[in-house]
Amino acid sequence: KAGVTQTPRYLIKTRGQQVTLSCSPISGHRSVSWYQQTPGQGLQFLFEYFSETQRNKGNFPGRFSGRQFSNSRSEMNVSTLELGDSALYLCASSLGGGRGTEAFFGQGTRLTVV
Amino acid sequence: AQSVTQPDIHITVSEGASLELRCNYSYGATPYLFWYVQSPGQGLQLLLKYFSGDTLVQGIKGFEAEFKRSQSSFNLRKPSVHWSDAAEYFCAVGSGQAGTALIFGKGTTLSVSS
Questions:
Q1: At a CB cut-off of 8 Å and minimum separation 6, what does A97 contact?
Q2: How many Å apart are CA A82 and CA A99, to the nearest integer?
Q3: Is A55's CB within 8 Å of B44's CB?
Q4: Residue of B36, B30, B23, B79 whose CA lies nearest to A35
Q5: What's the CA gap between A21 and A11, in Å, rounded?
Q6: Is the pLDDT of residue A1 over 70?
Q7: What is the mean pLDDT of residues A88-113?
């Protein structure tokens, strides 16, 4: 079956702009999580959505937001982009059963802010 | 607070030699532990996971890991490394919140020499 699909794969934006990233989970998966990966900070959890509701949130400013649709597809939005937002953004989907549920990752969206 | 430490940033192993990647975690209760691998430009792939039971867990691609509660460790091992194992390896622990949020270590880059 198809894996986790993230679009677009690459994105270049200017400081101050906003951006929306998309994630289509594996069919049947109800949980979608987002992570930011940078060389300095590593992989950091942004938020998780389950059945259209935010279930968990990491320690990121309010400029980072997300949502999940009824078909489990998810989007994350970053407003007022800063240079430090340049990163690989990874989406992970899971059946959503809880802490031990395996998460399947997409290939990520590489965001560059100039 | 939960945390994961991977003491080795970069390791080089000869092809055919054995491998051990170290991971130490900080978690109050019984942790949910994972090892993921990331090849360049790719997302993360789950190698193995530990929740409870047998402390030696087997994963894909010939990897295994041993959970040692007394040492708060979950080291990844492979008896004979192949050139295709060159990648970045991440140890992670379930965050403790409801849901599937993961806390990752900073990763260990594995290089394989011929």
A1: none
A2: 32
A3: no
A4: B36
A5: 9
A6: no
A7: 90
Interface contact flag, B101 A56, Cβ < 8 Å: yes
Average pLDDT over residues A10-29: 97
Which residue shows structure tokens 């379930």? Answer: B94
pLDDT of amino acid B47: 97
Query: What would the pLDDT profile of A62-99 be if each residue is shown by its tens digit?
Result: 999 999 999 999 999 999 999 999 999 999 999 876 77
For testing the chain B interface, which of A5, A45, A59 should be mutated: the one with the most B CBs within 10 Å?
Answer: A45
- Is the CB of A45 less than 8 angstroms away from the CB of B90? no
8 Å CB contact of B43 and A107:
yes
In DSSP terms, B76 is beta-bridged to: B21, B65
Residues of A with CB under 8 A from a CB of B: 4, 31, 33, 35, 42-45, 48, 50, 55-56, 58, 90, 92, 94, 96, 98-108
Q: How is residue B52 written in tokens?
A: 């409870």
Q: Chunked in runs of 10, what are the mean pLDDT values of chain B (114 residues)?
A: 93 97 88 93 91 92 96 97 97 81 95 95
Confidence at residue B98, expressed as pLDDT on a 0 to 100 scale? 66
Selected residue of A99, A101, A104, A110 to mutate for chain B interface (largest B Cβ count, 10 A): A99
